[in-house]
Design goal:
CATH architecture of the largest domain: Roll
Helix content: 10-25%
Distance between the termini: 41 Å
Number of strands: 15
Radius of gyration: 20 Å
Number of helices: 6
């Protein structure tokens, strides 16, 4: 087995998409037999997932990671253990002892962690699998780079590309973004700044009661350690990760909420179109 850890100065690096190095651990009989440090050779979740796949990595241990990266790893059959921190070697030892749990840490970027496709817009929010099909505009199908700031109605900021110092890049109208964000960018000019207000239907949809479900704790090894409010990942029948929150828990059962954490919320964005390719 081969384990990769996002790596910086002996520690677990906290942003998968920006890691400059991975530490690779070769495992035999539950023990580390060799290690090496490699460069990331690029950025972006698809490139990094491909690099790990080429290195025949079985498990990735990291800090924060977005939904697009999770999907890219899942497509390649790479097990994810997100939310780790501290010493990288100790994190691997904890994993081998069965003590390291995937806490579902999410980078919370609206280009990957909050994309319509990654969070099941077609299943729960839009009512069909073609929620962007009717969008029109000169930027549809083009690669756009935008800066943005997202706030709730009370003015609280929940995300900002300005704070990260890097514009968000996506293909407009391709389902990589929430519907209202895509629609706003579709007819913008480079250099233009717009302010938009999105209803839940234009963002992450209303809360879906069908996405809240209860299972017996005994059916999920380790579930007895979970706490209400904790975000974790379950797997569907195809082995794909499903982000859920622990909604309730008693002695025998645990209730999960698979709704997106932004479901039912009105959102505001200031968007600046930086470049169109």
């Amino acid at each position: 087995m081969r384990i990769a850890v996002t790596y910086e100065n002996g520690q677990v690096f906290q942003h998968f998409g920006h890691t400059e190095e991975f530490k690779i651990y070769e495992i035999e009989d539950g023990k580390v037999i060799s290690t090496e440090i490699i460069g990331s050779n690029g950025s972006g979740h698809s490139a990094l997932a491909a690099l790990l796949d080429e290195r025949k990595i079985n498990v990735l241990i990291c800090g924060g990671i977005g939904g697009g990266a999770q999907a890219a790893l899942a497509e390649r059959g790479i097990e994810l253990c997100a939310g780790a921190d501290g010493n990288a070697d100790q994190a691997v030892e904890a994993y081998l002892r069965g003590e390291l749990v995937n806490t579902g840490a999410n980078c919370n970027h609206h280009g990957e962690g909050h994309s319509c496709h990654d969070h099941g817009c077609g299943e729960h929010d839009c009512g069909n699998g073609d929620c962007h099909a009717e969008q029109k505009g000169k930027n549809i199908g083009k690669t756009c780079r935008t800066h943005y700031r997202g706030t709730f109605n009370d003015g609280t900021q929940f995300d900002s590309s300005y704070d990260r110092g890097e514009p968000l890049e996506f293909v407009c109208g391709a389902g990589m973004m929430i519907k209202g964000f895509d629609a706003a960018v579709a007819d913008m000019d480079v250099g233009q700044v717009v302010d938009i207000h999105l209803t839940p239907a234009e963002a992450y949809g209303e809360v879906d009661p069908a996405a809240i479900f209860t299972v017996e704790t005994a059916r999920l090894p380790g579930a007895e350690e979970l706490t209400v409010g904790q975000r974790v990942y379950l797997q569907d029948q195809y082995g794909r990760p499903i982000p859920v929150a622990v909604a309730a828990k008693d002695e025998k059962t645990i209730t999960f909420d698979a709704n997106h954490e932004m479901a039912g919320k009105e959102l505001n964005f200031r968007i600046e179109l930086v470049e169109v390719k």
